[in-house]
Predict the structure of beta-N-acetylhexosaminidase.
Amino acid sequence: MIPQPIAQQALPDETFTLLSDATIGVDDSGAQTIADRLAAQLRRSTGFALPVQQGTGTITLSANGPESLGAEGYELRADASGVTITAATAEGLFRGVTTLRQLLPAKAEADSEQEGPWEVAGTTISDSPRYGYRGVMLDVSRHFFTVEQVKHFIDLVSLYKINRLHLHLSDDQGWRIQVDTWPRLTEHGGSQQVGGGAGGYYTKADYADLVRYAAEHYITVVPEIDTPGHTNAALASYPELNKGDQAPDLYTETEVGFSSLTIDKDVTYAFLDDVFREVAEQTPGDLLHLGGDEAHSTPHSEYLAFVPKAAELVVKYGKRVMGWHEIADGPLPAGTVVQYWGTEDPKAQVLAQQAVEQGATLVLSPANRAYLDMKYHEETPLGLQWAGLVSVEQSYSWNPATLLPNVPASAIDGVEAPLWTETLDDLEKVEFMVFPRLPGIAELGWSPESALDWTTYRDRLAEQGPRWEVLGVNFYRAPEIDWR
Ligand SMILES: CC1=[NH+][C@H]2[C@@H](O1)O[C@H](CO)[C@@H](O)[C@@H]2O
């Protein structure tokens, strides 16, 4: 199972078998919705009626458990008499049901009736996460992905207890979220993508649908509007945003660092005020990511003046600032989360230290470990390799608590695996780069340090293969894994 739970005890003489007369019992703790969705999945794959009823059942779910279990913790017991999952919150119960899905045979994930038996080896599990931020980022700017495609992505990443979806909504190649007060951002700025194909964008209804769907999986959306660099799509949409009031053409290549908002124009801040307000209004989560990376065309003194002004607008609309680690070169508002994307370069590490010295916390996305767009090896047909080749082992074998020198473990909020999509224009390609590396990052975010061991992880990862086959996931069969 991935992520490895904090404590698990096998019950060697016990086996739970789901039979056709099985029921799912719930109490009045918000378990009903979670039970209904588990029942729907298992009805499809087992063909059993699986009624959901008040009280105990063959499988009994409750979110009325002790507060000591925490926001995402749960306890699970499977034995010959049945399965019980207890949590203190509906979110914790969802995490426990996610575990139960992995304890069942892989064919339980099928969307058509399969042969049994439906057995779970007897076990007791007590579990809760190491970090509160366990994220994945999908770059929908370089290549646009539809609402349905993002929902499919959410389904898959939620199997590994991921709880944050960072959507990279704007960049040089495309603006992907509707802003009523600046309609050309999507009409024009959202019309293309890398390679020149038709781009796309999320209407407010689309974005609300994604936010709701993510929340059903207890995943919070973190929207990113990248500034002041990576802004060609916005600059191409509105001449007045440009220094000389001349809009550049739309851009469909993959260079970085050539664009910048005009730091000394008032209209820039009126623009950001509208954008951040409209995005914040649609975002239940408390983080709004303002980017900040690779502002190579913004004079550094101007960058240092810009970040506090942009950050102030994020805070004005009730959100905490999140940004790539470059923003830590200047002052940061309280509650800021700095996303570290460095490799071993000392400059990035110093910025991370500066962030923490200011009281910011960190989300770790080391590019040579957590970037899912990095090639696995020289011959990988997709992805980039500027941060090096990232094998499955390389992606797993690091410790978030000790990655950065002079940064206390207490400053780490968690981890996030970014998927940049310069070379990925469909879900099959996305799945090939995300699996099998994402489960390892998810484990680094969830499991205790003591559970992190490549040799045992590698065997547990191999067991995910049959599950991905049933789910139709186009995963990379890394040769170093002894796939089942
Ligand atoms: C934070 C960050 N900025 C750059 C960098 O990561 O590398 C990505 C590709 O790996 C690229 O797409 C992105 O624009």
About this structure: Residues 300-316 form the longest helix (17 residues).
